[in-house]
Amino acid sequence: xxxxxxxxxxxxxxxxxxxxxxxxxxxxxxxxxxxxxxxxxxxxxxxxxxxxxxxxxxxxxxxxxxxxxxxxxxxxxxxxxxxxxxxxxxxxxxxxxxxxxxxxxxxxxxxxxxxxxxxxxxxxxxxxxxxxxxxxxxxxxxxxxxxxxxxxxxxxxxxxxxxxxxxxxxxxxxxxxxxxxxxxxxxxxxxxxxxxxxxxxxxxxxxxxxxxxxxxxxxxxx
Length: 222
Ligand SMILES: O=C(CO)[C@H](O)[C@H](O)COP(=O)(O)O
Ligand SMILES: [Fe+2]
Prior knowledge:
The protein is an alpha/beta fold. It is 35% helix and 18% strand. The protein has helices at 17-22, 47-56, 70-79, 95-105, 151-163, 181-186, 196-199, 204-221, and strands at residues 4-7, 30-35, 61-66, 84-88, 108-113, 131-135, 169-173, 191-194.
């Protein structure tokens, strides 16, 4: 397994975004949390800001939409050039149609589940997605504690993907650090979002390398 490390720019300095994007150049994707103060009780930014982030980022964008009505808004993020667009299962009216639309525009299609949402609703539609995001905190804020009780959901999704011969990426988001990443890798995650653990480090490139190494070691043991 070649783990992907996606720093969350939620933990960046919003008025020094260009510099803070340059600092994560050795990572795989820049994770961009779009929050609408409706699906979650927090507000970040929308397509106008993400378009500038797309133009500025040295690495591709992994957009995480925590918004109501993604059926209407998600395609715009694919159109502005985001490599990956993930919407919440709980918010989408027609997740399969939306995933097909995202892929037809040229982005990877992702679907996210909140901690209280079961993963088995996704089993039958796994092939429609390039990425499944298992939230390991309640969406809305950075800096929260990792929820180890999400590991059975992740493990079951990994087993189901293997059973179906699917190459879908399994992403975890929330509370990922050097102390927690091994658990998630061992349970089957291959794509890891980390906000505070990356931007809080003195040496960001070393933090990215450290997370990658821990995930790789844990997945080989698991
Ligand atoms: O989607 C998110 C919150 O809803 C963020 O991506 C996530 O919380 C990252 O922050 P941290 O690594 O500090 O937990
Ligand atoms: Fe996120």
